[in-house]
Design brief:
There is one protein chain. This protein has 447 residues and is an alpha/beta fold. It contains 17 helices and 14 strands. Helix 4 (104-118) packs parallel to helix 6. The longest helix has 29 residues, at 289-317. The structure holds iron/sulfur cluster. Iron/sulfur cluster binds next to helix 1 and helix 2.
Length: 447
């Protein structure tokens, strides 16, 4: 392994040959970022907002400087079948004077304005870094507003510096529980499921719902892609939770299991293998023999329909090398499997918030010598992409310039993308994009 790595970061970067102890303890992860290492990770506030933002009729008031509000404004390509209020961003726009004398009066006025002008029924109020420093009591403001207007005004105490992005996910899950809980009445809808941790990027939630509908499974609430306050408040009635983005939503699934007895399974709808397995596992978990038979038929039809498509593209991709840097472990695992299906070797793989068990699976799926990294920074990514001669990087908006500056192809697999990558439809989009980017003639023009 190259020597240009900060000493404190060395335990978070391993080779797949490194002898893990069966529990993933070979890599250091789930820790706060090393100061000065310039992590690619987003902050606590961002982690909370990206989970809550797709709730279509919710208002988000960002208590802090305008920059925090714009940082996550319309951050996801989440689509809606109802309200599009969520695409706005409201801010108290704190200035130096407010930071010296306190900003609670401005926050109270912002809540009053959002209720008066927009008739808000559900408001999330976020505390950002500076609010964490000056100590404005956003809980008191939210409590008073809830009593005054008889609506849900929920504080999300998420100063960016107060932990990791995963802490933001937890805060968001706690906030979602506060939306669901008031409607809990103990009733159940037999055989129905909630989908957790899918954000309806480019309509991906609708693709998954479509499969489940075809095999006869009722989707109750979607959390949070294309959700509304009213649909969220039915969530406690489901018989099963399925968790697509494990990093952001496993904590919510566990809380719903503890409080309302709803079991959960983790799924992934990225790639042929994971999509097929997930459909079958959901059918087996809540369906009868007829549902399972329909699931098997759907999987057979869709998979065989894709075979000639994959056969066409595979010769153009076999032998290429990929680097992956994404938010959570489950997505990284699905991507390695997808690349394996295409004959592409994953030579570098990392995540912002992966857990020990994710890294164990990643290590098992990887070839000898693959670099595995947790909470990487740009310098580390560049170093290992060059060292391992990656042909393509799969990541998000912050990784795109790294790839292009190195003359490496890129595929966006994050919030901002505008085409679906989930389900069997997503496999087609993904393979076409990978092929277009890797085999673009532009790379031949580089020295
Ligand atoms: S909360 Fe803090 S770290 Fe996050 S965007 Fe605002 S200032 Fe930056």
């Amino acid at each position: 392994m190259t020597a240009d790595i900060l000493e404190e970061r060395k335990k978070s970067i391993i080779s797949s040959d490194f002898c893990c102890q069966g529990d993933g303890s070979g890599i250091s992860c789930e820790k706060e970022s090393v100061s000065g290492a310039v992590s690619q990770r987003a902050c606590v506030y961002c982690g909370a907002r990206v989970v809550l933002n797709p709730i279509t009729d919710a208002f988000h008031i960002i208590h802090g400087p305008i920059g925090c509000s714009s940082y996550t404004w319309d951050i996801r390509g989440s689509l809606t079948s109802g309200s599009d209020v969520f695409r706005n961003s409201f801010s108290t726009d704190l200035k130096e004077r407010d930071i010296i004398f306190g900003g609670t009066k401005i926050l109270e006025a912002a809540v009053d304005e959002v209720v008066a002008k927009h008739g808000a029924k559900l408001i999330f109020v976020y505390a950002t870094c500076i609010v964490g420093v000056i100590g404005d009591d956003i809980e008191a403001v939210c409590r008073a507003a809830t009593e005054k207007y008889k609506i849900l005004v929920i504080p999300v105490k998420a100063p960016g510096f107060s932990g990791t992005k995963s802490q933001g996910y937890k805060l968001a899950c706690d906030a979602i529980m506060k939306v669901i809980a008031p409607a809990y009445d103990g009733s159940k809808i037999p055989g129905s499921i909630n989908i957790l941790g899918d954000y309806n990027l480019s309509g991906e939630m609708w693709i998954i719902e479509g499969y489940l509908k075809k095999i006869g499974i009722k989707v109750n609430a979607t959390i949070t892609g294309d959700a509304s306050m009213q649909t969220l408040q039915t969530a406690s009635k489901a018989s099963l939770n399925i968790v697509q983005c494990a990093g952001s939503s496993t904590y919510l699934a566990k809380r719903m299991e503890e409080e309302w007895g709803i079991p959960f399974i983790k799924v992934s709808f990225f790639g042929v293998e994971d999509t097929s397995n997930s459909i079958l596992r959901v059918a087996q978990a809540v369906g009868n023999e007829e549902v399972i038979a329909k699931a098997e038929e759907l999987i057979q039809t869709e998979s065989s329909g894709l075979q000639s498509f994959l056969d066409k593209y595979k010769p153009k991709l076999v032998g290429k090398k990929a680097a992956i840097y994404v938010g959570g472990g489950f997505k990284a695992i699905s991507l390695i499997r997808q690349f394996n299906e295409l004959g592409i070797e994953t030579v570098v793989v990392g995540t912002q918030t992966g857990q020990k068990e994710d890294y164990d699976i990643i290590r098992q799926l990887s070839n000898s010598g693959t670099i595995i990294m947790d909470d990487a920074n740009p310098s580390e990514l560049e170093t290992f992409m060059k060292e391992k001669k990656a042909d393509i990087l799969v990541g998000g908006v912050k990784e795109r310039p790294l790839a292009y500056k190195l003359g490496i192809a890129f595929c966006d697999h994050n919030h901002e993308r505008k085409h679906a990558l989930a389900g069997y439809e997503g496999v087609r989009n993904f393979v076409e994009e990978i092929n277009l980017s890797i085999n673009s003639p532009v790379w031949d023009l580089l020295d």
